[in-house]
Amino acid sequence: MSADDARRIVLRAQGLLGAPDHRAGVHGMLRRLGAVQLDTISVLARSHELVPYARLGAVGRPAVEAAYWTPGHSFEYWSHAACILPIEDWPLFAFRRRARRARGYRWHELEDSAAALSAVRERLAAEGPLTATELGGAKRGGPWWDWSQTKIAVEWLLDVGEVVCRERRGWKRVYELAERAVPGDLFHDDLDDEVCVRELVTRAGRALGVGTVADLADQHRLSVASVARALPGTDLVPVAVEGWREPAWADPTALREPARGRHRTTLLSPFDSLIWDRRRTERIFGMVHRLEAYTPKEKRVHGYFAMPVLAGGRLIARVDPARERGGVLVARRVGFEGTPAAASRSAPAVAAALREAAGWVGAERIRVERVVPATAAPPLVEALGEAADPVPGGIGS
Fold first, then answer.
1. Which residues contact 114 (CB under 8 A, 6 or more apart)?
2. pTM of the predicted model, to two decimals?
3. End-to-end CA gap in the chain
4. 3-state secondary structure of 119
């Protein structure tokens, strides 16, 4: 398989090549991806809102939230990280729930386990669903990790499957007894560990299109050894990809017909499953990208929340966005990939991505503050047209 064929298969598997499936909507997208990562950072929007936006276009943010948290459709649990997962995958995480139970705790230990757990169970049974604050308080007054006994108890019950996060409200988890939140036919831990891993590897193969053993393991944070053991029991097909050092495995349905269709032009969250693995992103797209939100400001290269720009099936630039009152989307830095000539050719696509993002968040104007290389600034501003907001003193480089 050529590297270009692999890249197109990946894009199609991720819902970024071909016509958007508006009929299936956010629910269908979640089932297709298998996991949508959650994160506290919100610039244009939170990451789990940016993921459907990238694939479906300007879906209203309230509609996205409503689709994720429709009762009986999804749940939040530990996958690649804290993720929204399709409810039908509840049984497949039995292996992780058992492992957490066997360990006995995650980060914190309870002082009086029996009393704390019983109190949470009783409150949820009588009043649920509730946030940790409503249950009695999430913190004891110290740093964010200084959890109250109530918070430790309810998170432990979530870890072992007695409690489910049924939605996020003001970014707080809303907890419900699992027996109420999970449909009856799915509410079981009957699958043994090997079956759970094999099914998750199969689903990872479909979501990725094609990937190495390490790629498949990273999807749900499985061990490479467990994935290697599971692969012979899946229907994934071994393939060799041009330029990849490691053997790869592909979804058989992805190999039956060429990956063709219209490419999406969009900004991508750094937590988007297309690019959440740095090594895979570099291997497929040639872009070395890392989130710099936790890097000291003076050491950042691309910006606090630099969002790669996908266009024509390639990552052509990075935009570090912000929003200002008065309906302005600010591109604090636009960094193009490739040569200055390639950057100028890419300017219209970046402008299109910025205009669509601005419309989605209700911004009428777009101000570009810095462009690298500087020679790409004039064609970028020209492509933005009337949406461009002048920068006092000119665009920096």
1. none
2. 0.94
3. 40
4. helix
244 token code pair: 């990849």
130 and 124 Cβ atoms separated by less than 8 Å? yes
With beta carbons less than 8 A apart as the criterion, state whether 248 and 203 touch: no
pLDDT of residue 108: 76
- With tokens 């029996």, the residue in question is 114
Tokens linked to 392:
């006092």
Helix ranges (H only) for the chain are 3-13, 25-33, 47-56, 61-68, 94-103, 113-127, 132-135, 149-160, 178-181, 193-208, 213-219, 224-230, 252-255, 278-285, 340-361, 377-384
pLDDT digits (tens, 9 = 90+) for 241-294: 999 999 999 999 999 988 899 999 999 999 999 999 999 999 999 999 999 999
CA distance 153 to 109: 9
Transcribe 230-270 into DSSP letters.
HGGGS--EEE--TT-SS-EEE-HHHHSS---SPBP-EE--T
Q: Is the pLDDT of residue 396 over 80?
A: no
Distance CA(354)–CA(349), nearest Å, equals 9
117, 135 contact by CB (below 8 A): no
Question: Quick count: other Cβ atoms within 10 Å of Cβ 170?
Answer: 7
